[in-house]
User: What shape does this take?
Amino acid sequence: MQYVSTEYREAMKQPARNKSYMRISLGLINQAAQTAAEVQPGGFTYFSDVGKPISEEKVSQVYATLEKDFSRVNQTMYFLPRASPAAAYYNAGIVTESLCGQGEEPVVMIRFNTADPLDIKGLTLELGDSYPVRLSVETDEGTVEYENTGPCFKTEDTFDNTTFMKIRAIEMVNEVGRLRIHNIVFGIGITFDNEKIVSAEMKSCISPISECLPSIDFHVTIENMDRYYNVDNADSAINYMETGQEMEVHYGYTMNDGSVEWVKGGTLFMQEWSADGKLAKFGAVDIFEYMQEEYKRGEYRPGGITLYDLAVDVLDDAGMQPEQYWVDPYLKKIVAYNPLPMVGHKECLQLIANAGRSVVLQSRDGIIMLKSSFEPGKSVTANQVAQYGSVESLLQDQPYAEYAAFEQDYARVDKKQFFLPKDENYIRIGYVSSAISNGEGYFAENPVITLTMESAYTFHNLTILFGSVQPLEFKVTTYNNGEKRNSFRSRGIEKRTVVYYDFIDTDKIEIEFNRAKPYNRIHLERISFGSATDYKITYDDLTATPYGTKLEKVKELRVVRTIYTKGMELKDLTSDEIVLEAGKQVEFEIEFGNAVHGLNAVCLVDDVEQDFGVVIVNSSSYWCKVKVTKPPNTETNVTLTIRGYEYNISTSMESTKLNNAGSIQTWNNPLVSSAEDAKNLVEWVGEYYKSGNQYELSYRGDPILDYNDLAYLESRYVEDLMVRLEEVSLNYSGALSGTLVARRKI
Assistant: This one.
C-alpha cells in the first residue's frame, strides 16, 4: 500500500470526488547502443570518468576549476586533488581538457561496439551548469548542429545506420569553458497525460502463499490523430520501440485545496504496441516476464545455504544488479540444503519465497522483492527489571497485579495491591523498573523496553497500558535490520496510551522512559500491537454488491519434507551418440532428470574407452557441461557417457487438520527438508486455506492499493472483516474505477 497524506485519504472518501489525472512516461532508450557505447580515450582531464556517464550513476560532486564564471564558493563544489595514480576522485563525468572559446571546439567521440549499425531515436545529454549553447552531433550519415538553452539537451532526431557519434561544443554559455557530460542516454523520454490518454487499465495478481508467480499487466490507449505513432511514419517513435523499455505510470488526484497529489502507479516494461489513424495502443508487463532463462546452479549443500544467499545467487545468475532487487533479511534465518530444480529464475524465486513464508513481487519502482508475509513472533526485553517485576508479561494477556512499594503517591489500601513476600515467591505481575526516579523525575539510567519481531512487520499504532502511575515522558525509536528509521516523543500520557503511528517494515522498537513522577518506578501492564492495516473498504466505496464465493473446504493440509542422502552406486547416467570433428574442441550441455553427484565423462568407440580429453568443466545437481579437449585427427563417431551417482531421496510428511470434511491438499516444495520449516509452512499455508471465503468487489478505484495488501471490508455480519487483496484492477478513462478479488483473512 502506498502511503499518502491524510488529506488525500479524506478527499478520496468524499461522495463526489475531485478530478483525477494520469501521466505515463516512456523511455525510448536503445539498449544495444547504451550497452555497447564506448567513449574513445584522449583529450580528457585526469579526473574524468568516461565510463560512468553511459551508466545510470549520476554526477553529484563537481570540482572547481579555472574557467570563466564557473567555480563557486557556496559549498557546492570541491577542491581538486593533485594528479596521482593512487588518488581517488569523485565521479565528475566526462570533462574535456581543451576549453571551448579559446579557438578550440572540444569533442567527445563515442563508438558502438556492435556487429551491425544502430538506429537510434533521440539523444539526451546532462551537461551541468556550464553547458554549450551551440553544439553539433556527427554520425555516419552526417553532422547536425543544434541550439541549446539549458543543462539538459534533448533531441528527437533519428540517427540511423550509426557506428559512431561525435559530440562537439561550438559555443559555451560562459563563453570559455570545458565540455562536461554528466550523463548520456541514447534515446528520448515520451510523456502522455490526460490530453492524450483515452483509457488505461492496470491489473496485478499475486498468490499470498507463493502458489504461483505474481503478474502485472498494463494497457493504455492514446489519441493518435496526428498519426505520430503510425508505423509508416519514418520519424515515428513507434519504429524505435523495443521490448523491455521502461514505462512509468503515475496517478494524480486533486486535493480540496486545489493542489494535486501524485501517486506512482508502477514501473513496467514494454511488451507490445500498435497504432491506426486514430488510436495508438501500448502494453507493458512486470519484470518477471523477461526472466525466462533457466537456473542451472542448483546443487545439494551438506553445509546448507540461507534462503537469502540462495535468492541472491538466483538473481545474480539472472543478470540482476544489487540495486534491482531487495531480499528480506529474515530469510537469512532459514537454511536450505536441497538443490533447486532446473527451472526458470522466476520459478526458483517462487520456491524460495514459499519455503520462507514470503511472497515474491515487483515494487512500484520496478524492484524485485522477496518479502516475508506472516505475522512474526514477538519478544520483549528490558535493560532493567525490578526483582519482583516481569517483562515477559507485557506481551501476554493475563490478569494484572501490583505490589505495594515505597514510592511517592503509589501504595493504596483499596485491596488492589499485594504485600511483598519475604521468601521471594512472587506472583506474576507486570513490568516494574528497578530504578526509581529522583526528586525531579529523572533516572540515573533510563529504563528501556525493547520489542523485537521475528521479521519486519507493518502495523498501525501501539497501545501501552500503564499501571496505577504513569510516566511523564518517553521516547519511541523504530528500526529495520539494525538501521534506525524514526524517533519521536510521547504526547498526552494516560493509563491507556495509544501511540498513533504507522510502523512500516519495523523489526525492533525501543521505548525509553526519560522521566517519571518524583520517586517512582515505571509500571507497565501490557503492550499490544495495532492492526496490520488501517484501510477500510466501505459500502460507499463499492459500486455494486460484493460477490462472495464459499471456496471448497480443505480437510487436511500436508507438507512434504524431502531429504537427500548421497548415493553409493556408480551408474551410467546418460549416453549419447555424437560425432567428433577432426581437430575441433567442442562442448556439450547435458541435463539430468534426477539429482546427481560425483560425475565423470568418458568417450567410447565400440565399447572401448578412448582418450579424447573429455572433462566436465562445470556441473550442478541437474546439469553438467562437458568439453572435448583432445579431439581425434579424423571425424569419429563416439558414445559420450556420463557416469556418477544419484542422490537417494526420502520423504516424510507434516500435516494439519483444517476441517472435518473437504479435500486433501499436498504441498511439495523441494527446498523444504527440516521438520521445523515444514511445520512453519503447514501453519502458514493452512491459515490461508482455512479462511475459505473469496470476494469479488467493484469499487470506485484507488491508486494506493497494491496486491497482497490487507484491508477491512465493511460487512453486515462480521465486525472488522479483514481481507487480503489477491487481484487489483484499476481503470482510468478520465475518472477512476476498479475491481478487487480478496480472500478473507482469519
Q: What stands out?
A: The chain has a mean pLDDT of 92. The chain is about 5% helix and 45% strand.
